[in-house]
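step 3/5: co-fold with zinc ion
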Amino acid sequence: MKRSFYDGIIRDLKDQGFRLTKVRMAIIEELDRAKKPLSAGELIGLLKKRGLGPHKTSVYREIAFMLEQEIINRLSFGERQDRFELAALEHHHHAICKVCGEIEDIACSEGIRQIEEMLGKQKFKVSGHLIEFFGLCTSCQQSS
Ligand SMILES: [Zn+2]
Ligand SMILES: [Zn+2]
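step 4/5: write tokens
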């Protein structure tokens, strides 16, 4: 089962004196619960389901705040919208189905780390990497 980061994030925000609005807490909870990175549109839909019905701009403002506080990371999968996931998650990659949009978490691997090492030898100091994979998921392969 996936670890929950909700309590820790809420505690940190409280300690730093930030306001804990209903929308702020709900966004963190939905991102914590989500099995994949969420777009702003998906977040708005999830909040509406909870009867919060926040204004689009307040959700975008919250996302900007959370990016600035490094609570979430922005991911781009070449869609029209960016996606967001909790920064506290263990480092990993994604495999995205180009047909249905299914997103799967992929663990980092020795091969990827070897590239960092190689760059290090070329005097390039790597501070991180973003690698996403695109293709067809199992069910989309079967129906094509
Ligand atoms: Zn698919
Ligand atoms: Zn990696």
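step 5/5: annotate
The pocket of zinc ion (ligand 2) is lined by residues 91, 93, 108, 112, 129 (CB under 6 Å).
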